[in-house]
Design goal:
Elements (H helix, E strand, L loop, with lengths): L9 E5 L4 H12 L3 E6 L4 H9 L4 E5 L8 H10 L6 E4 L14 H29 L3 E6 L12 H21 L4 E8 L8 H5 L1 H10 L12 H8 L10 E4 L7
Parallel strand pairs: 1-2, 1-4, 2-3, 4-5, 5-6, 6-7
Amino acid sequence: MSLFDLSGRFAIITGANTGIGQAIAIGLAEAGADIVGVGRSSMTDTRRQVASVGRRFLAITTDLSQTRKSAQVVEEALALGATPDILVNNAGIVRRADALDFSEEDWDAVLDTNLKSAFFLSQAFAKAAIAKGSSAKIINIASLLSFQGGIRVPSYTASKSGLAGLTKLLANEWADRGINVNAIAPGYVETNNTEALRADAERSADILKRIPAGRWARPGDMVGAAVFLAASASDYVHGTILPVDGGWLAR
């Protein structure tokens, strides 16, 4: 069996409708996994691309900012026939404003979606995997702001710093239960969340100058790391936060 073969496994992926989540869903399907896509909006395009490589796609429509629904996602996935093999906590939002002006509403919206829902999804997923007696992989989508402060995104920085810490804690608690918990920290990626940055010519130029690879990342650049962390190749990898950043942190 290939170290990177995901045949016979299911991957639950939040925010699978576009961007990084969609790319990872398609990439894991190409490696053999069936996909459970979780999101607020239509995932028709993701379904089509997953089906084109011969894998199943099950859709769960929900709003993960309502964190009480996190456990229901796992219950619904299992009811649809999925198994608790791989969970990718990708769903995330960003709100931008100076820290002096940042609102409580924007703080809560980002923390609930990016951090709180990821914890309770992981908790429900881990319970299901342990009850089944099977090994499992959890992949959190962290950020460069898990390592750095950034500007004008206080709640996003707090959520991604928290997700990095949570990745390590859950790895510590669940490694001996057969569950690997790791994270990918994308660099600056061409997605909806970075549209405002890319539209600001000065900020975009400043960012690009620091990236040794000489370009912004594309969502597909995250796929290799995701397949590695989902597959048996990473069975002895626990609590790692893997930057996929074009060399940004090395600069």
